[in-house]
């Protein structure tokens, strides 16, 4: 990464040039987390999917806006195996690359998948307590809808 035509990562991340891109990235993200579009961002992290275009990033291809939880905990803790990026053998690793692809999916697909999963959980829970599974599925979908508000 230390070439004459690309900035050094840590110098670049601390620069005004990088920070000046954040408002445009956030606007392109509609102030929503790319991983969980039902989360409106008050605080955010601009996350590099890779470092191939450092200094010439394009939103959605090179960078995404994420909630601090998604960025700090899911990507850089759970999916990295607790290793910092510089200590990972490959960055992004396979789980991180898969999650990056999830982040790039259209919001309606993510919302549909999450609603479906909550409906299934509702149906399973309903069976456990002896209620009609359809009722549980509907309740799961209602819970999701309430969470969106």
Verbal overview:
By secondary structure, the chain is mainly α. The protein has 2 domains: 9-105, no CATH class; 108-148. It is 53% helix and 5% strand. It has 6 helices and 2 strands; from the N terminus they run ααββαααα. The chain has helices at 9-13, 16-28, 68-78, 94-104, 107-129, 133-148, and strands at 45-48, 63-66. The chain has a two-stranded antiparallel sheet with strand order 1-2. The radius of gyration is 19 Å and the shape is elongated. The mean pLDDT is 90.
Write the layout of secondary structure elements.
Blueprint: H1 9-13, H2 16-28, E1 45-48, E2 63-66, H3 68-78, H4 94-104, H5 107-129, H6 133-148
Antiparallel strand pairs: 1-2
Rg measurement, Å: 19 Å
Poorly predicted runs of 5 or more residues = none
SSE-based structural type? mainly alpha
Helix % is 40-55%
- DSSP helix count? 6
Termini separation comes to: 43 Å
* Number of distinct beta strands: 2
Strand-residue proportion? 5-15%
Largest sheet data: 2 strands, antiparallel
Mean pLDDT rating: 90
User: What is the 3D form?
Assistant: elongated
How do the strands of the widest beta sheet line up side by side?
Answer: 1-2
Helix and strand run: HHEEHHHH
Number of domains: 2
């Amino acid at each position: 990464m230390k070439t004459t035509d690309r900035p050094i990562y840590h110098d670049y991340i601390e620069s005004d040039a990088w920070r000046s891109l954040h408002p445009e990235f956030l606007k392109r993200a509609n102030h929503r987390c790319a991983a969980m579009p039902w989360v409106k961002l008050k605080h955010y992290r601009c996350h590099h999917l890779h470092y191939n275009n450092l200094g010439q990033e394009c939103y959605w291809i090179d960078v995404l806006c994420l909630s601090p939880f998604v960025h700090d905990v899911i990507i850089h803790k759970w999916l990295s195996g607790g290793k910092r990026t510089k200590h990972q053998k490959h960055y992004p690793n396979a789980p991180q690359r898969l999650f990056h692809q999830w982040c790039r999916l259209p919001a309606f697909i993510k919302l549909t998948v999450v609603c479906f999963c909550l409906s299934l959980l509702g149906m399973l829970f309903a069976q456990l307590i002896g209620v009609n599974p359809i009722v549980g599925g509907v309740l799961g979908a209602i819970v999701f809808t309430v969470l969106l508000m």
